[in-house]
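Today's session is about reading a structure prediction critically. Students often jump straight to the picture, but the first step is always the sequence itself: look for stretches that repeat, for charged clusters, for runs of hydrophobic residues. Only then move on to the predicted structure, which in these notes is written as discrete structure tokens rather than atom positions. Here is the chain we will use throughout the hour.
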Amino acid sequence: MPLSEKLYGFSWILVLMILPCLVPALWGAKLNPSPPIYEFEISRDWLTMRDGVRLSVTYFKPVPKKQGEKFPALLELLPYRKDDLFYLRDYPIFVYFVRRGYVVAKVDIRGTGSSEGTIPPREYSEEELNDAIEIIRHLSKAPWSNGNVGMWGVSWGGFNAIQVAMRRPPGLKAIMAGCATDDLYHDDVHYIDGAFHVDQYELRIDTKHGLPKWPDYLLDEAYFEKRFNAYPWFLTYLKQQKDGSFWRKNSLRWDYEAIQIPIYLFGGLLDGYRDSIPRMLENMKVPIKAELGPYVHGWPDNAVPGPNYEWRHEFIRWWDYWLKGQDTGIMDEPRFAVFVREGHSPDAKLKMTPGHWRYEDWPIKRTQWKKFYPVDEHQLMIKTANPGIDQLKYVPSYGVEAGYWWGEPTADMRPADAGSLIYDSNVLTEKMEIIGFPQVRMKVSADARLAHWAVRLEDVQPDGRVSLVTGAVFNGSQHQSRLDPRYLIPGKIYELEFPLHFTTWTFQPGHRIRIAVSNALFPMIWPTPYSMTTKLYRGSEATSIELPVIPYKERPAPQFLPPQPREKRPDARNLESPGWPFKYAVIRDVSNSTASVEWEGESRWEIGKRRYSSIDKTIYQTDDIDPANSSFRGESVRTIRLVDRTLELKTIIYLRSDKDNFYVQFTRRIYEGKKLIKERTWRDTIPSEFH
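Below is the predicted structure for this chain, in token form.
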């Protein structure tokens, strides 16, 4: 029988019902989404798949106001363990929707969390996507259902919502995808911009997979067979270093017509997945809404840096329109709301971004492309000059200031620029606003068979400090094709063309525009293994950057509500913890030419009488003289303190490279109390293919 509990306490409901009425309508919109009038129940149950595997589902269900009342369903399907790791996260989000007449179904992917089965072999596996189709069928035909299902989520939930929609299950009527991409190889965290990347995500996801099944956390034969001994995903992805069918089969970018239902997108200008939003706006033919704010990977009401808004209100308007048939006016508004950054000083701890929201369409028809050329004396001019060659010695440890994945506020870029070719414009006399993908063309050569080129667009402040605007990496082996990588011929000249990541920015009078070109972006991109010098050939159309300049035009602004307080779960709470992260250090040892980046974070929480903690540590190291000698060490520990026993799972990844191979050691250990119950280690030598 399902476990149920009724939750009450609506002292704030009246405020939320009245507040939307105070906001002025735009475009004749009827800002009248479903009000928060429902009490609700939370219950756990099972959904049986075609092969007999039972998936654990938690339902947040409204209590009907009248006999026979039906509700739409909202599905979120994740491997992140809804009953312990995500227990605190889910409640304040789901409650907002269930109070407004939606059944929210949260399901653990098979083999994870509370669900039965074996861990799938990869993210967005055939097992996961087929299960999603079966789940949608169950939800659409449930006795309480009106037959309409929406699938949604941020990050993983956005990814699989897109991919399930590509398969067109009949009950799925609309989706919402936040901070997700349509290009799994180029844009995801495994091969950022088509170049190898590793971070704490790989460490954490394989650690979650190794945890025992909730609620009893039994260390039985089924646990060791189906979870603890599951082949690490990290090794799977390291063996898929080239773009191809493994990545493209479920990547929407290569088949936009696969989705035939409405889609709502949101993301952040500091999120690594932002590029998919304008691409999907431009290429999809279905009804589409999109919002692109100033923040990192997260929810628009609390992600940093702000300003933030109450995205849940907008999404109720969306779901009401497509799942309840209520005209909330949302489809009468322009389809793209974008935050235009006004330009700011570098600040790795930025809390609030100067700028403003406004509606645009995409592409923006009034865009004027302005071209700049690198010329002699490291200038950036609007006209070409005499041909010249600038040389750059590759130093693999440069680029730390750019962050981990084009996905966070950044500090002063001058230390990274010290290892780059830089070109500065004249001082601007009037402001220049850009929105879009800056386009780069470069004529280059290298005296090694593999090189990456990283290009950064930057804003030089009047006081000399440098802000990162956007950037991108080009894997030199992909000069001919992503699908057909080939090593460079040393000394041969290549002409490269590629976009920088989507951005908005306003270069203010008194500032300079800077282009920085380097061959390293450590630790975001794994260092290429050869000491080398590269050349940039300037003085022709083949080496330039074009900026998408947007002339001023009066445009309306979206009338977003300010963020509303999130309800707190009554039976769980976060505990005081060191922070995420609480340690970040860059250490350079001049005596032996090495550099390392160290990162450490910890969080703690409790659910009832159970206490949990999560600790992750990563250390990157490279050698400026011998870049092939690079390494990554990650350690992840999850501790579960039950009333009568304590469990601890530890995952350790050690990765190092030479000129030809990656050498991997992946270890899982499970402890009960202080006793080691079982340990398993995978060791592998994996050839390095174009990374």
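Discussion point for the tutorial: DSSP finds eleven helices and 33 strands in the chain.
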